[in-house]
Amino acid sequence: MDKIRIAIYSRKSRLREGSESIENQIQICKDHIQKIYNNKNYDICVFEDEGFTGGNIKRPQFQKLIKNIKKNKFDVLICYRLDRISRNIADFSDIIELLQAYNVDFISIREQFDTSTPMGRAMMYIASVFAQLERETIAERVKDNMLELAKMGRWLGGQTPYGYNTKGSKENIRLIENEKELKIVKQLFEQYIKLGSLSKLQGWTIKEKIKSRKNKIFDMSSLKKILTNPVYVIADEVFYKFASNNKMNICNTLEEFRINKSKGLLCFNRTDQKFSKNKLKELKEWIVCIGTHKGIINTQIWLLTQDMIKDNAKLSPRTNTSRIALLSTVLRCKDCGSTFRIVGKYVDGKLTHHYYKCKTKEKSRTTLCNVKNVNGLEAEKMVLEYIKSFNIDEYTAKNEYAKHKDELEENTIDKIINIENDIHKKKDDIEKLTEKLIDTENSTASKYIIDKIEKIDLEIQNLEKELEQLQENKEEENENKINYELLRKEMQYAKENIEHLEFEQQKRLIKNLIEYVLWDGETLSIKPRLI
């Protein structure tokens, strides 16, 4: 008789008092398993996340559990209480569907639910609704508190926008103008409308030697962040109507917007903190009010800029996925080290030829690099011919490197998990501090709570940047990871038929076999992997 494979999942928010400990949850689950599977063979595997909120499912051990379920490693999932899995009904519904798809029964001891029965499934959905209701009630209280604080024109923390500094006590922080930076902000809006693209704007900043607050070259994401931030907009009747039409939460009356002459805007709740890149929320969730700082951009200019950015985003080609760019992942400029962008030439809507252009050359308008463009067809033909002459035996003999890459990947995964753990713990701390802030708004303690929130928020920002870089490195490692036996067979076939392979097959071979291709303006030099 086959053993029943049982997974136990336990979770506890570290700062939450009065809830069952991880150890108690696990023991309760084991006692229940012994009771209902008394005369059957079974194996138990335990997954535990301590210090993580139930508001989302981005928990390391829970994600590991899900991956194992998708590999058909379990027959039953059991937990002490329903909200140990999730407090979010959308997440919970997805989890139930996943369990059903892989024929995994779910048992929640506290609520006495068992998805092996129709009544158990129905009751579980009902209970999950109440679990989320509790969370949404807390979120609504936080939102109401933000609205009241925003009405006073206070800066509620986070990264201070370029062009402003902060001053005041912790319980009454205000934005103040940095005239030198604001002058640059005005120029950025003017030049973007004139030039029409972020890449050209970045080139202009390089040419004019305009740098960020940290004395670094502005990247396009930083420029976009400035151009899309409403903090620079002069609060007027036009913006009020725009906010009203998009159902934003507006803290001030239409009359207050009408009589305002120069004050800027404060806009809160714009980004979703669950995403490492702070994904923008829908406009109807934004909280908008008139600030105490000076605004410098009129609404018409700001709205025109937003429309241009959206239109350009639709037109921008995804060069890394282009089906005419075989070398997009391996081609590098020998002069400056930059990657290349694919540029296609079209006549009557049909592609006639394409070439590769150095990104630094393009961004700096040839001031930092002026290497010649690369003829796409000629370069790709040269690389494919090189692969046809590749020595398979010499290449596949380098298996020791693969082991080394596996070790590097394990180290990267460990670092990612540790950073994700830190981020989730810190976000949980902020959530709990925010709840305390609601109850201590007018007390002396509130300034210390705000100070702590800001400090933790800055730590989260730094961790998220580090995490993003590690994840990008890991994705690149995964893309470049080599199955030697499969590759050997592919290479043997490619040597005879490479011109007839599908585009994706050609591109995969190039990524697996070539470490980089350097272009110095005259010649290509190819560096194969491992040799």
Fill in the keyword field for this structure.
Rossmann fold; single chain; 17 helices; five-stranded mixed sheet; 18 strands; three-stranded mixed sheet; alpha/beta; 531 residues; 4 domains; Hect, E3 ligase catalytic domain fold
Strand and helix layout:
Layout: E1 4-12, H1 22-36, E2 42-50, H2 60-70, E3 76-79, H3 89-101, E4 105-108, E5 113-114, H4 118-151, E6 164-167, E7 174-177, H5 179-195, H6 198-207, H7 220-227, H8 237-245, E8 249-250, H9 254-259, E9 263-268, E10 271-272, E11 279-280, E12 287-294, H10 299-315, E13 331-333, E14 340-347, E15 350-358, H11 359-363, E16 374-375, H12 376-388, H13 392-396, H14 399-439, H15 445-480, H16 484-497, H17 503-513, E17 514-519, E18 524-528
Parallel strand pairs: 1-2, 1-3, 3-4, 8-12, 13-17
Antiparallel strand pairs: 4-5, 6-7, 9-12, 10-11, 14-15, 15-16, 17-18
Helix pairs in contact: 5-6, 14-15
